[in-house]
Design goal:
Length: 549
């Protein structure tokens, strides 16, 4: 009990002592301290609020940046998918294009010359024949017999005379040449219409080519437009000839392709072998400061050699020999004392590898030719293979086949029309190319003699189609159907077809003149033929028509 009273007293005393009214001075600053604490708490609260706002802004900025990154990633992903789809379509389009191109080339190789096999196509193409009165079979047969057939014997006699004289002249040429320094001349060969028996227009001119080779130890290395070398489009059908030593590999050492420094020397070739004196190369008829054979230099050398050869044998003959044409350096003319003359062309050529394709120094130019080609670019002639092809096909045709007759009549009509209205872009070589295409396209029985009229119209319609399309392909170049018996070089069979009418695209005035001349020739066909045909009695005409039926 006393303990409990003591505890109550202690509590009362403690309460009295701690009462604020008892000690006012000691507790006078309490209200001021409370307000200061409250003020600090408010300031702290305001700073915390500002910090919270700053943190919220930073978080919002981070969220916006994250969203932007996510959006950019989505855009990149979509662009990748779009690019993938575009690449896929591009690749697919390229594949389709390549397939179409391969199909076109296969179709072109297989069918680009298969014209004339479909009568309906030929009928559609012959638009220029509407309203044209074409001579019948009887008139054509009489015209051919009276006007053309008689020239065959004259051509045979002229060929024999010219070939004999050319052989004698070349033998004399070899005797006057230096065998150790001059070019080696081989025997001549006849090419062209005179040797294919279809030339009709006078004067008759024999075309002879003379292969030649360099003296030892040199040799020719040829390059063509289709051998992988870079040739401009206007040089298709051309090539270059490089003169080099027989034991020299012009493609095997880099010193021949790049310029070495003054202090550098090729370890494979001495200075004497890599840099030849210019006079030596000029003696080898090369273009100045090059190893390429110069056609102009060759013709100058050949003309001088022919002149020396003629001076040696002129005493054996009772005629004169001279160069007849300035623009054709190989054109020669024999003048008899009676006033008659015989013209022939003797042109030097270079053999392409081991084939019968030749680089010809000068080729007759047509109105389609633009600028003169560079003298180091030589035109390739396939005349020997053309003659062989005609001979090969002729063995499979009926007796007295009309293929040569068609070409002769067409050549005659074109020549007469050009004499009336002036020259055109068409040449006899174009006409022969048309015949070669149709010879390969049509079966042998279609060339029977009684089908002369039909085949002549086919040739005219085919020529009309080629003029309309400005496309007449070279018969051999790019033609995979050349008979294997000819031994034709495969490199030219696999080459892109060569369009002989390509210049028409560049020369519109010549093209328009050519088309007008062709249409005028069609309209004048009957008049031109009747002018040179003896009138046939009606009874005879009816009899011939009945036989053909």
């Amino acid at each position: 009990m006393p303990v409990g009273i003591f505890r109550v007293c202690l509590v009362v005393i403690t309460a009295i002592v701690n009462h604020p009214l008892l000690f006012p001075r000691e507790n006078g600053t309490v209200p001021e301290n409370t307000e200061e604490i409250i003020q600090k708490m408010k300031e702290r609260e305001e700073s915390l609020r500002l910090e919270q706002l700053r943190l919220e802004q930073e978080i919002a900025a981070q969220e916006a940046a994250q969203k932007a990154l996510e959006k950019a990633a989505e855009v990149v992903e979509e662009s990748k998918e779009e690019k993938f789809r575009w690449d896929m379509w591009t690749a697919l389009s390229m594949v389709i294009f390549l397939l179409i191109e391969l199909w076109r080339q296969d179709f072109q190789e297989g069918n680009w010359q298969d014209t004339g096999g479909d009568e309906d196509d030929m009928a559609v193409l012959g638009k220029a024949f509407k309203g044209v009165a074409f001579p019948d079979k009887a008139v054509l047969a009489s015209f051919y017999e009276k006007r053309i057939l008689g020239t065959t014997a004259d051509m045979a006699r002229m060929r024999e005379m010219v070939e004999g004289f050319a052989d004698d002249l070349l033998e004399a040429l070899r005797s006057v040449c230096n065998r150790d320094a001059d070019m080696e001349v081989e025997d001549c060969m006849g090419i062209g219409s005179m040797y294919e028996n279809w030339r009709v227009r006078k004067p008759f001119v024999c075309d002879l080519i003379v292969p030649f080779a360099p003296p030892e130890p040199y040799c020719f290395q040829s390059q063509t437009w289709c051998s992988g070398d870079s040739f401009p489009p206007d040089k298709q059908g051309y090539g270059t000839i490089k003169v080099c030593r027989a034991n020299e590999d012009v493609t095997g050492c880099i010193c021949d392709k790049t310029k070495l420094g003054e202090d550098m020397l090729c370890l494979l070739h001495s200075q004497a072998n890599t840099t030849r004196p210019s006079s030596e190369m000029e003696d080898l008829l090369c273009f100045k400061n090059t190893q390429y054979l110069d056609a102009n230099q060759v013709m100058k050398w050949f003309q001088i050699a022919v002149t020396k050869a003629w001076n040696r044998i002129s005493h054996k003959y009772e005629f004169d020999l001279s160069f007849s044409l300035l623009d054709s350096p190989g054109a020669l003319k024999i003048k008899f004392r009676s006033g008659k003359s015989i013209a022939f062309n003797l042109t030097p050529v270079v053999q392409y590898e081991n084939s019968d394709v030749y680089f010809i120094s000068h080729f007759p130019r047509s109105s389609l030719a633009a600028d003169l080609p560079s003298s180091i670019h030589w035109f390739l002639t396939f005349a020997v293979y053309e003659r062989r092809f005609i001979q090969l096909v002729s063995k499979t045709l009926p007796a007295n086949a009309c293929h040569v007759s068609c070409l002769q009549i067409l050549s005659f009509l074109h020549g007469k029309q050009c004499s009336l209205t002036g020259p055109s872009g068409l040449t006899n070589y174009h006409l022969k190319t048309v015949m070669l295409h149709l010879l390969q396209a049509r079966p042998s029985q279609d060339w029977a003699p009684e089908k002369l009229e039909a085949r002549l119209q086919d040739m005219l319609k085919f020529l009309e189609k080629c003029l309309h399309e400005k496309k007449l392909y070279h018969f051999f170049i790019g033609n995979g159907k050349v008979p294997a018996e000819l031994g034709f070089p495969i490199i030219f069979q696999k080459a892109e077809p060569l369009n002989l009418f390509r210049p028409f695209v560049l020369h519109r005035d010549v093209y328009r003149k050519t088309v007008d001349t062709f249409h005028e020739m069609l309209r004048n066909t009957s008049a031109l033929i009747n002018e040179y045909t003896v009138r046939i009695p009606l009874a005879q005409t009816n009899g011939i028509q009945k036989e053909s039926l």
